[in-house]
């Protein structure tokens, strides 16, 4: 029976020879991840209430990224509870203020093709860039995973999004996803989005992670990309072993059945900007002329990896942030910050006037430094701009790529990054 | 089997499409205890809702209700405020699962747009019927899948797990 990649992984995880969309199955979880906000503070009291223990602590990863560093009694207490619980449980895979959970899984070799993973965060879909099935769940459901090591799923239909053509300079995976939020809408609930085609195959792992991260914005169970040599190199760079055979095994069969297939051309795509208050409100950057901003924000799992910081630095090299505008940068991990120091990227950004924030989720989820006041306008590399997400409900957030956010910081209004890149390597 | 859960009755609070988790559980209140955060539920779209919603009232939404974050507080806030059920044209997947895990019935309801604010609704989960007492109209709703009805009848995932663990400890 021909199967999609999602069907193959779910069949393996549920112990079936094959599965078809619509079936309800119970899957064994290969890895469960949660963070300081969704994790121990909500899961530990429930485990206690149940008198239950963690089913397999070697399969649990805990990351403190939402409330880091502590700024008041409440956040300090949440972080302490997280540290205490991890110690009590003897969970070795704990990253405290080292980076954003989805990026930590990728950096530290936790993900491999064919795995079935449950994450206590909606952007857990990011893991799908490694050819594993990784979906987000709430805290009670993650409690269930902790107790049983299992979770139910309805086998999803797969939507194939096939990209060919070279992305023009200044246009990125982020622009692809803002475009897709408009094109496919945000209600692809209970489906999987598989990204494929030459454009995707040529992307770095960090850019592929942008695609699967924002599969969450499309409303999907997860986003998936079949593994190749680039995937394996990234896994090995994270210190894990992986067999070449996974490339041939963990991919959709050529005659697999997709619910729909979209064939799209990357070569004609312009940089995209999502207007407040939805990622689906995306337009070409040239359609928002003269929009003034108060803040430019480079942060989040989706938008502050080393690749993102390098894009911003390419625009800002030898330039300055416009007067009256603040450019805030919260790198996605400590490893990102170190690499950006080593290669000069961070120096370029700071010389331009950027303000460096601690690594973590920061202002993206409205919990950390850099949130907005009523009436303020921000352009951000983050993945969501719902009303009230990044601070006050009467603030306005536009979304763009790191190129677009950096160019906008230079001009003090939303700007097309392409002129800034001409002749810049 | 809990009969009370299978039939519900309450006033409708109507909302449009794409009610997101930041509207249901704003991030800036997320470090507050759930009871306090719930008082801010939906304040950006309907400032009266949290203070005026009565136990048993029914939230009616459009497309993609609950899109966004995995934060369970989005469904928990409605539960804390006493909401009896959410009817919507469509649901985001994590919100849908979170609601059922917390014992809050969620039903796909194609005719959501025909309900007006404060219409009185009767819902029969088992028959899959919504009665609008204000207009006398009756609508079929997509039935809750059997494995999820079981979870709802147990009162959510926690009571379900307790039952399961008690069964395992006996055997």
Question: What does this molecule look like?
Answer:
- The complex is a heterodimer of chains A (about 425) and B (about 170).
- Chain A is α/β, with parallel strands linked by helices.
- In chain A, about 35% of the residues lie in helices and about 20% in strands.
- Chain A folds into two domains: about 5-265, Aconitase, domain 3 (2-Layer Sandwich); about 270-420, 2-Layer Sandwich (Aconitase, domain 3).
- Chain A has helices at about 5-15, 40-50, 75-90, 100-105, 140-150, 175-185, 200, 205-215, 230-235, 245-250, 300-305, 305-315, 335-340, 345-350, 400-410, 420; strands at about 25-30, 30-35, 60-65, 95, 115-120, 135, 150-155, 155-165, 190-195, 220-225, 260-265, 270-275, 280-285, 295-300, 325-330, 355, 375-380, 395-400.
- In chain A, the strands form five sheets. In chain A, strands 4-3-2-5-6 form a five-stranded parallel beta sheet, with helices on both faces.
- Chain A is globular, with a radius of gyration of 21 Å.
- By secondary structure, chain B is of the alpha/beta class.
- A seven-stranded mixed beta sheet of chain B has the order 4-3-2-1-5-6-7.
- In chain B, helix 6 (about 95-100) links the parallel strand 3 and strand 4.
- The interface of A and B includes residues 50, 190, 388, 390 and 391 of A.
Brief account:
The complex is a heterodimer of chains A (425) and B (171). Chain A has helices at residues 5-14, 40-50, 73-89, 101-107, 139-148, 173-184, 198-202, 205-213, 229-237, 245-249, 300-303, 306-316, 334-342, 345-351, 402-411, 418-421; strands spanning 24-28, 31-35, 60-64, 94-96, 116-119, 133-136, 150-154, 157-164, 191-196, 222-224, 260-265, 272-274, 282-284, 295-298, 326-329, 355-356, 377-380, 396-399. By secondary structure, chain A is of the alpha/beta class.
């Amino acid at each position: 029976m021909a199967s999609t990649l999602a069907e193959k992984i779910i069949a393996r995880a549920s112990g079936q020879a094959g599965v078809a969309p619509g079936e309800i199955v119970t899957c064994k979880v290969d890895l469960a991840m949660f963070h300081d906000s969704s994790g121990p503070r909500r899961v530990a009291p429930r485990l206690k209430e149940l008198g239950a223990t963690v089913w397999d602590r070697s399969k649990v990863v805990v990351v403190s990224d939402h409330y880091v560093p502590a700024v008041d009694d409440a956040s300090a207490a949440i972080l302490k509870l997280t540290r205490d619980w991890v110690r009590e449980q003897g969970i070795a895979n704990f990253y405290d203020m080292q980076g954003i959970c989805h990026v930590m899984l990728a950096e530290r070799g936790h993900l491999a093709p064919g795995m079935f993973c449950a994450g206590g965060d909606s952007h857990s879909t990011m893991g799908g860039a490694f050819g594993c099935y990784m979906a987000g769940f709430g805290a009670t459901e993650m409690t269930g995973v902790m107790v049983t090591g299992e979770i139910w799923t309805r086998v999803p239909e797969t939507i194939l999004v096939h990209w060919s053509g070279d992305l023009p300079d200044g246009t990125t995976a982020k622009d692809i996803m803002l475009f897709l939020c408009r094109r496919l809408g945000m209600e692809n609930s209970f489906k999987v989005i598989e990204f494929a085609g030459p454009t995707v195959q040529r992307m770095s792992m960090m850019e592929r992670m942008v695609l699967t991260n924002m599969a969450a914005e499309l409303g999907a169970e997860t986003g998936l990309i079949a593994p190749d040599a680039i995937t394996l190199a990234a896994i090995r760079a994270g210190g894990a072993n992986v067999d070449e055979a996974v490339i041939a095994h963990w991919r959709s069969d050529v005659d697999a059945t997709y619910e729909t297939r979209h064939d799209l051309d990357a070569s004609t795509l312009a940089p995209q900007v999502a207007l407040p208050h939805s990622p689906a409100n995306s337009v070409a950057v040239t359609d928002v002329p003269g929009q003034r901003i108060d803040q430019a924000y480079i942060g989040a799992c989706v938008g502050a990896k080393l690749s993102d910081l390098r894009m911003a630095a390419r625009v800002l090299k030898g330039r300055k942030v416009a007067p009256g505008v603040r450019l805030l940068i919260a790198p996605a991990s400590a490893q990102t910050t170190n690499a950006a120091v080593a290669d000069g990227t961070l120096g370029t950004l700071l010389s331009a006037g950027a303000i460096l924030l601690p690594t973590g989720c920061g202002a993206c989820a409205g919990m950390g430094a850099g949130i907005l006041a009523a009436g303020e306008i921000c352009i951000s590399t983050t993945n969501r701009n719902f009303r009230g997400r990044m601070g006050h409900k009467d603030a306005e957030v536009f979304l763009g790529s790191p190129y677009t956010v950096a160019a906008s910081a230079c001009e003090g209004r939303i700007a097309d990054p392409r002129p800034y890149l001409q002749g810049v390597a | 089997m809990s009969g009370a859960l299978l039939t519900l009755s309450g006033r409708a609070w109507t909302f449009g499409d794409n009610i997101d988790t930041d509207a249901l559980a704003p991030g800036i209140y997320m470090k507050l205890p759930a009871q306090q955060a719930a008082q801010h539920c939906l304040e950006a779209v309907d400032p009266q809702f949290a203070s005026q919603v009565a136990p048993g009232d029914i939230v009616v939404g459009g497309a993609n209700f609950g899109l966004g974050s995995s934060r369970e507080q989005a469904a928990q806030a409605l539960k804390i405020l006493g909401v009896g059920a959410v009817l919507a044209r469509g649901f985001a997947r994590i919100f849908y699962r979170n609601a059922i895990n917390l014992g809050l019935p969620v039903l796909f309801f194609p005719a959501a747009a025909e309900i007006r604010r404060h219409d009185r609704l009767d819902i029969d989960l088992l028959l899959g019927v919504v009665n609008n007492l204000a207009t006398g109209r009756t609508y079929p709703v997509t039935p809750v899948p059997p494995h999820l009805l079981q979870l709802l009848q147990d009162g959510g995932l926690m009571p379900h797990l307790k039952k399961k663990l008690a069964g395992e400890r006996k055997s």
